[in-house]
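Review this today:
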Amino acid sequence: MPSWRATKDISIKDDLVEEVGRMVGYDSITPQAPLVPAAVPPGNPVRKFQHGVRNVFVDEGFTEVYNYSFLSEEAVRAFGLDPADHVHVTNPIASNQALMRTSLLPGIWNNVLENAKHRESLRLFEIGHEIHKRENAAELPNEIPHLVAAIYERQGDGAAGLFEIKRAAECLMPGAQAEPSEARPFEHPARAALVLWKGRQVGRMFELHPSLVEAGRAAILDLNLELVRTLSAGEIKYTPIRRYPSSAFDLSVVAGLREHAGKLQASIASFAGPLLESTQFVRQYVGPPLAEGTKSVSFRLTIGSPERTLSSEEVGEIRGRIIDGMRGLGYELRV
């Protein structure tokens, strides 16, 4: 050990190895790469799923936005939330960023307001985490991945935006349904629904309350991505292409204006029997000659058998059974 390094400069074994290297000469040491396994690391299923979600919404014309995970008390109260239920930041960088968000809605709401100043219409979405306090304050907060999407239109009554955002949800979750729900304070009183998929509630879709949007209408979709990913993990079963042709026909049901189309569709399916392949919503009509407070909802039904071609009499029998069953429930059919 050289004398100039004897003044508490040597404290660990590595210091001695370093000195030996200096004496021998680093140039005389043959370089050799470390022997480590060269295997491809396993993929992250959560990230892979979220990338797939992003692709779905980008393909539907949405633009992804990124917001801070911090909120102000004003934004929290605007959505009827209690600041005491939020995780408080000990040293916030700004007074309006003192709370951790328990919802992505305030962020997307602000994005809509700012961009609506310059755009007639827009489509935005964000993937992030809701951060919820636990009962035991010593434990770390519970972070739940969510997706929030918004469709804003300055013109129109907002109905088209709701249908469009439901269609976007169906692109991600084929067969998803909307069930009318009681509106929360920041939701339009008559335009709020639960999003159901595979028998589970996975989120909500609604129109923002008019008091929160200066001009125009904004339809919102809020999904629990953790639950959606869990339900997406099931096996996909192959169904062979039918060898025999199918038959299709349309039925129009006259129902109350607030009647849910999903209820009508379920009733039709129950009367059709096992040979029903699909029931597709076609259109909805309101106006003369229908009575006030009613609407006509049209469906296209496809009937078929995997074993043979159905005769016109068999198709007519199924059609008649549906008509009789719906009339028995008190509905009028336009046939």
